[in-house]
Amino acid sequence: MALLENLRFLAGYRRAWLFDPMLLDALRMADLDGATLAEAFTSVLVFDPDAVRSSVFHLLWSGWLTTDLDRPLGSAHVLRRRS
């Protein structure tokens, strides 16, 4: 059940044109492999925190980042870079 709820939640971040390309690039260049969601949300301090949070969720939706979606998303979820 958590998987479906997480996918529904992340689907809200699927529209790539809504995200700042410079912010997405900054997140892609940050070392987020092994970081928690909480760490990722504070990894790029020069951008608005709400925009960073949304962009991290977009990178999860797009598959650039992965995490365990079989349990409800939380700040302790560990991120992995797509191989």
Structure notes:
It contains four helices and two strands; from the N terminus they run ααααββ. The chain is about 45% helix and about 5% strand. It is globular. The protein has helices at about 1-10, 20-30, 35-40, 50-60; strands at about 65, 80. The chain has one domain (about 1-80). The chain has about 80 residues and is mainly alpha-helical. The protein has a two-stranded antiparallel sheet.
Give a short summary of the structure.
By secondary structure, the chain is mostly helical. It contains four helices and two strands.
Measured distance between first and last alpha carbons: 26 Å
H-E order: HHHHEE
Shape: globular
Radius of gyration: 12 Å
- Give the overall average pLDDT: 97
Number of domains: 1
- Helix percentage: 40-55%
Structural class: mainly alpha
